[in-house]
Amino acid sequence: MSERYKNSELMLERALKHIPLGSQTFSKSLTQYPFGVSPYFIQRGSGSRVRDVDGNEYIDFVSGLASITLGYSDPDVDAAVKAQLEEGVIFSLAHPIEIQVAEKICEMVPCAEMVRFGKNGSDATAGAVRVARAFTGRDRIAVCGYHGWQDWYIGATARNLGVPQAIRDLTHTFPYNDLDALSSLLQSHTGEFAAVILEPMNVSEPNPGYLQAVKELAHKHGAILIFDETITGFRFANGGAQELFGVTPDLATFGKGLANGYPLSAVAGRADIMALMEEIFFSFTFGGETLSLAASLATMNKLQNRPVVETLKKQGEKIITGLREIITENNAESFLSVAGHPSWSFFVIQDSKNVSSWALKTLFMQEMISRGVMTLGSHNLNFTHSDLDLSLTLEAYRQVIPYLVEGLNSDRLNELLRCKPLVPLFKLR
User: Fold this and answer.
1) Most buried residue, 9, 11, 39, 254, by most Cβ within 10 Å?
2) How far apart are CA 176 and CA 182, in angstroms?
3) What is the percent of the chain where pLDDT is above 90?
4) Across residues 258-265, what is the average pLDDT?
5) 60-90 b/e (C-beta count within 10 Å ≥ 16 → b)
6) Does residue 225 sit in the same domain as residue 156?
7) Are 8 and 52 in contact (CB under 8 A)?
8) What separation in angstroms does the CA of 185 have from each of 135, 142, 176, 180?
9) Dihedral angle computed from the Cα positions of residues 308, 310, 315 and 317, in that order, rounded to the nearest 10 degrees
10) What global pTM score does this model have?
11) Three-state SS for 57?
């Protein structure tokens, strides 16, 4: 048992007796954090820092799986939630705050004419797909990126256990930035695709004109274009990636940073399509839960009144620039790189020689976490990540990247690792 993570490991042992994987979320479980060199339970968070159950503090670049855009325990969000708590959490009828939040989303998001709420990004993407199928009278869906746990999407991945083959057959994947591949896919089942859904950007930037061409191609084939902005929304720009890149989809889905960590998601889009939400079944007991809506309204107001998006971009650019310099200094460009948007950038580790990228990633996480930097390999910035946070993080990289180079160039990787290497859950993007 690790002394540094003793309480975490004892708590994990206890959790595993009653909770599969010991966590409600794959990305927070021992499938993603190597055992013996990682914490598994966080006790509290404030700003950019979190503290685990053993009292270790970390600069957190996971940011609640990118759901924290303003920082943990944001005072404005907390105040809004506390005020709403005095009125109540859920009622037998709708609460006026539902209207206020819907209006605010329509004010900020280019495609939004009408809005419906869910709780997770998976709720929103499943709702968007269902209403697209209803609107077009078609069944097939073309997907690019990660879109949640529900059958319609996850059946197209390696994690398809329990999904009927008939459902799996209706979802078709296509590679990002490859228009020819999408065109061939849509032509292979002419007149059968209800929607094209993609993350407008994740690791790679869209090629010039790519997103607009995807929209035109979808419409040419009678399909609806859906942007999954679960992460990019309220992070890349106040109106999401669609605002940043100037391409307006028919529908878009939001979650994560919509309420700075409170459970809320949304489907938004064209009024003629969204009107069918009255006919399909998309209904939640807790869809109008008021604390998350109060958090969302406070979050969006702060996005409009403070330079949140600008700060995420500015601080993220410092990480990208500094990290690229460190990679170059260590002659590690052959297997290490940085990609993505400044507010959501990726430290990319490639397979090399006879060394798996997952073994190298495990070593990376082992060493970064031990130095007080919580990371899964991306930098999910929030508004409170300070210059000191960035300086400490880059210093950790300066110490850790030589380990990765040594692990690659020697036969000592197993000696450097103090745990078993991670294995891939499934290819997300």
Assistant:
1) 254
2) 9
3) 94
4) 97
5) bbbbbbbbbbbbbebebbeebbeebeeeeee
6) yes
7) yes
8) 21, 8, 13, 9
9) 150
10) 0.95
11) strand
